[in-house]
Prior knowledge:
The complex is a heterodimer. By secondary structure, chain A is of the alpha/beta class. In chain A, 28% of the residues lie in helices and 27% in strands. Chain A has one domain (3-96, 159-231): Rossmann fold. In chain A, strands 7-8-9-5-10-11 form a six-stranded mixed sheet, sandwiched between helices. A three-stranded antiparallel sheet of chain A has the order 4-3-6, with helices on one face. Chain A has a two-stranded antiparallel ribbon with strand order 1-2. In chain A, helix 2 crosses helix 3. The two termini of chain A are 20 Å apart. Chain B is mainly alpha-helical. Chain B has one domain (3-223). In chain B, helix 2 (24-43) runs parallel beside helix 5, helix 3 runs antiparallel to helix 7 (163-191) and helix 6 (135-156) packs parallel to helix 8. Chain A binds chain B through residues 62-66, 81, 84-85, 87, 89, 91, 93-100, 104, 108-109, 111-114, 137, 153, 157, and chain B through 3, 6-7, 10-11, 14, 17-18, 21-22, 77, 80-83, 85-92, 223, 225.
Amino acid sequence: MSETDSNSGGVAEPVISVTNLVKQFGRFAALRGVTAEFFSGKLYAILGDNGAGKTTLLRTIAGLNRPNRGCVSVLGKTDIRSSCREIGYMAHPSLLYDEMSGMENLRYFAHLYGIDDNLRCERAIKAVKLDPTLSRPVGQYSQGMRQRMSLARALLNDPKILLLDEPFSNVDVRSAREMVDLLMKMRDSGKTIFVVTHQAGLLDGAADEFVMMQAGKIVSRSSDLESVQAQS
Amino acid sequence: MSTSLKITSATLAKDIRLEWRSKDAINSMLFFALLVVVIFSFSFDPTAEESRRIAGGLVWVAFLFAAVVALNQTWARELRNHVLDAYRVSPAPANPLFLAKALGNFLFVAVLEALMTPLFIMFYRLRALGPAWQLIPVAALGTRALVVNGTFFAAMSLRTRNREIMLPLLLFPISIPALLAMVNATQNILTGDESARFWIVLLGTYDVVFTIACLLLFETVLDAE
């Protein structure tokens, strides 16, 4: 599948393409030959029941799982290590140290990306509507605050691709809507965003495409939530 | 400063900060080593001469067992909230993480040794008859042997179900040559019977070989599923 580039009129190259992706954990096949292309500046909502393979697909794109068969290409490179600077990954667990404050956590992760600038950390925290001066350790944050700080960590390196696994879980409706607004802004600035979620309704009208997964396969893709749910 | 050096120092500073706040490793190590000193000193009543012969073994076995506690803690921290995944998705190379963890463990075990050595001397009435200054390289090289291998094997047993049991199972057999060198070198220095030079050189060689092997293999261990 390719897409017409609205600016140049040519055919746009996919930001991420996965080809015949198979991932097995022992005898359980989490991904069963997934083939898909995803394009720049779009917000994709990945839907499906538990065990459908959503998280495995995201982790494989992030380079955390090695596929048993098939390949992943990110920004035209099949070696994900070479493009990991352009990926922001938010997992279901917070990926934060509970004993350190939000700012201390971000300062440490900034070093891993070669960022020495404290302002970048502050900006990422402010973007998710948290206070960078908060000295409380992350372990004492509410679940919603922890989710937002986890999103701030994923935004830290200003990535072109954002992979978000359940960003709205345990977040109140108002905060979740604020997060959706932020994601839309980032999408409009050209970032490609993947959101794995069970709360598809939150992304109705925001996501460019809904991708439905079932039993390790993509079963339908549509810009309309109702039709993707009906097709599955 | 190079990127790798910056990541190493940032990770080391982070680990020291976390240990300072939680004191998980240092408290457990101190408690364990203290128990060994007290229990053995009450179980036996050695003469000064006997003490010099057995102290090397006693001290190093106590430090080895106590170090295992710290080594398990090192990686347990990275497993909570899956923080290790944040490192793995970043462009940071694997070796700075290993170096920082090994340096951190070296520091924690060195603090334990500094606190426990006076107690060992007091309880076992120890006085070196050989060149006492040689105990410093023995302690430094011995501690390095324990923590470098320990950090590596603790990372290796990270994803196993019984990692607290797995670590000693992997670490102790491979540490036998180093332990033998540490015990014999310490005993030779305390008794003054023979030179400890051979054992110190053996310990140094062991350290170089295993540090290189661990650095070469760590990336594979980190990315293993």
